[in-house]
Amino acid sequence: MNRPITRRDLLQGMALATTGLAMPPLHTASAAQSPAHLLHNPSYPPALDGLRGNHQGSFEVSHGLARYGQTDWGDISPIDDVYDLIIVGAGISGLSAAHFYAAKHPHARILILDNHDDFGGHAKRNEFDVNGRKILGYGGAQTMQEPSGYSEIVKGLLEDLDIDVSVFDSAYDQHFYRRHKLAGGVYFDRKRWGKDTLVNYDLSDLKSYIPLDTSKRSAKKAVDEMPISVDAKRQMLFLLENNKDLIPTISDKWDYLRALSYRDFLVKHLGITEPDVFAVLQDLAGDSGVGIETINTASALWYAGLPGWKSAGLPEPESEEAYIHHFPDGNASVARQLVRRMIPAVASGRSMKSLVTATFDYSKLDQEDAPVKLRLNSSVVNVERKAAKMSRENVTVRYVRHGKSYAVRSHACVLACNNSMIPYLCPQLPEKQRQALASQVKSPILYTNVALTNWRAWKNLGIGAVACPTSYHINAMIDFPVSYGDYRFASNPDEPVIVHMERFPHLSNAGLSVREQYRQGRRELLSTSFETIERNVRLQLQGLLGAGGFNAANDIAGITVNRWAHGYAYYYNAFDDEIYDDDDDERYPHMIARKPFGPITIANADSAANAMLESAVEQAYRAVNELG
Questions:
Q1: Which residue range(s) make up the domain with 418?
Q2: pLDDT category, 517, cuts 50, 70, 90?
Q3: pLDDT of residue 78
Q4: Sheet strands side by side (includes 82-83)
Q5: How many of the other CB atoms lie within 10 Å of CB of 42?
Q6: Rounded to whole angstroms, how far apart are CA atoms 411 and 83?
Q7: Residue 605 predicted with pLDDT over 90
């Protein structure tokens, strides 16, 4: 537990701010570099550990502009080229915009700029080398959820990329958890509850999206094992076992529950008063990014799977499409396939199966004569719409890369970055639009991937995924069991796996709006060191798995922390926002925010007020069509 972090961790977790100065420009790397060489090269971002996501070096320029009003970025190099389209942001939406534009204009010259050292936005890939075996994880965007319901636009893109979602029926081993008798659990940490206690009971309905084995414990036995007070046990058991409709006089239950916080539901209708019950449930709403006093009851029950469905008198939920459409690196494979199709030199092959284990040559992303260039480590600081004599309007884009300022020009521009940044990049926009853009405050997210040399402790304890109330990370799970192409998931407990852990920082029970809570959480993320996060990971996993024979010092092979200060797109909620019947009501801020501005259009998940992959793709399609 007290083993110091390695020098490599220190270099990658603390000193990445200087990476741009230490690394040569991407286009100067040797074309003869082999995949094996690239895997151990700092210019191959997927293999870097330590602090990733919004890593050091990716946000300082943007903060200088937005927080401190900096406008002097040094002497600007002369405009080096003119493009048909410049895209700001290399996430799924930005890459999709490039794909759609190239399809409409086959001879177009496209430049994509991104402030990170890797492409994909939240769809990032994490690679680990554990005893000579490569294992893959996702650093953000996790899954293509319910793809059968995708629009023709999104289905068309997947078809263009040769992504067949039906392969996951077999690629995702849906019998893995039951075969190994891995059920859900809830972990009570020693610091808050006096002793480390693991209860094999699925308190937050993890089984709704992970095909876990069914726990043999009854609700009563599970509650008896919880280290909570006697009165709290009585109230918790009532919450878990009650089957009677406690709001029978409410006719439109969903409308009522959407206007009522989950905490108020517990107090008003179930008589919950014990602090221990609230403490256990407080943050189990997970990726909603808020606590039980802020999430509405409808979302808490339907989306987060918190207990109380029968108490609300709701009908049996309809079956949903299995949550299995997951590449070994999540939606990073979608981003990688988009890049490989537009920039074939980056990796050989065309099929998705060849893509999963391919090592990309990042030196080929920004080639002089390529029709599509992807330029990383490039923070845009100004996007200016200009009228041109005797010709159509054009756009000048200024950016900072490796401490130097550059300017490029294009006939059109797609802003595929965070909405909240756009008012600072493009101050020419109308004030009403700039205010609408600024209202999109994303939820902060910490996705931590821990490479283990084995998962024997999980097997011994009979758990595959665990809710962790009051711990640093709110959950921990063995990563999804997906084998695809040449990539194979662990077949037995002696093989390495990735444990995925999540944290959604916010300030609970302080009377703050959702946006204010997100801002507080963002401050926490950006001020927390990798060493602090690593220490919490080791303590939490040791407490959780120690009884199963886990040894943090020996069994942890690597830690990659994906820090997303600006995570999920903002979803409207009845507590803070006006809600309209139509998701695309023109009065919504996201509708005002995405209006085209001459040759400048906006494409991102923010533009749909929805954080899903399909939204990012659809907004890219819209933005490109607005350009004509």
A1: 84-118+371-440+573-628
A2: very high
A3: 75
A4: 82-83, 404-410, 394-401, 378-386
A5: 15
A6: 7
A7: yes
Cβ neighbourhood burial of 168 (10 Å; 0-12, 13-18, 19+):
buried
Total domains in the fold of the chain: 1
Q: Is 68 exposed, middle or buried (0-12, 13-18, 19+ CB in 10 A)?
A: exposed
Q: Which helix (H) or strand (E) holds 216?
A: none
319: Cβ contacts below 8 Å, ≥ 6 apart: none
Residue-wise pLDDT for 56-78, tens only, equals: 999 999 999 999 999 999 888 87
Residue 392, Cβ density class (10 Å: 0-12 exposed, 13-18 middle, ≥19 buried):
exposed
Return d(Cα 225, Cα 220) in angstroms, integer: 9
Size (the chain), residues: 628
Q: Could you tell me if residue 598 is inside a domain? A: yes
Instruction: Report how far Cα 283 is from the mean position of its chain's Cα atoms.
Output: 18
Q: Is 603 inside any structural domain?
A: yes
Q: Are strands 475-478 and 110-113 parallel, antiparallel or unpaired?
A: unpaired
What's the distance, CA 85 to chain centroid?
27
Task: Tokens for 416, please give them.
Answer: 């595929």
Q: Assess if residue 251 is contained within a domain.
A: no
Cβ–Cβ under 8 Å, residues 83 and 409:
yes
Give pLDDT tens digits for 266-297: 999 999 999 999 999 999 998 999 999 999 99
Q: What span, in angstroms and rounded, lies between the C-alpha atoms of 186 and 207?
A: 13
Give the span between the Cα atoms of 285 and 308, in whole angstroms. Answer: 13
Q: What is the mean pLDDT of the chain?
A: 91
Whether the Cβ atoms of residue 513 and residue 576 lie closer than 8 Å to each other: yes
Q: State both tokens at 583.
A: 């998701």
* pLDDT (average), residues 500-516: 95
Q: What is the pLDDT of residue 338?
A: 98
Tokens, residue 468: 């962790």
Kindly report the backbone phi and psi dihedral angles of residue 557, in degrees, each rounded to the nearest multiple of 5, phi listed first: -100, -20
As a whole number, mean pLDDT of residues 370-395 equals 89
The CATH code of the domain that includes 405 is: 3.50.50.60
Strands (E), 114-250: 125-130, 133-138, 183-188, 197-199
Chain-centre distance of CA 424, in angstroms? 24
How far are the Cα atoms of 388, 395, 597 from residue 415, in angstroms, in the given order? Answer: 21, 12, 11
pLDDT, one tens digit per residue, over 299-352 is 999 999 999 999 999 998 888 899 999 999 999 999 999 999 999 999 999 999
Using CA atoms, how far residue 2 sits from 166, 180, 552, 557, in Å, is 46, 32, 10, 15
Burial-class residue 320 by CB neighbours within 10 Å (0-12, 13-18, 19+): exposed
Q: What is the C-alpha separation between 345 and 342, in angstroms, rounded?
A: 9
Helix 92-104 × helix 332-342 angle, to 10°: 30
321 lies in some domain: no
- SS3 (DSSP) at 130: strand
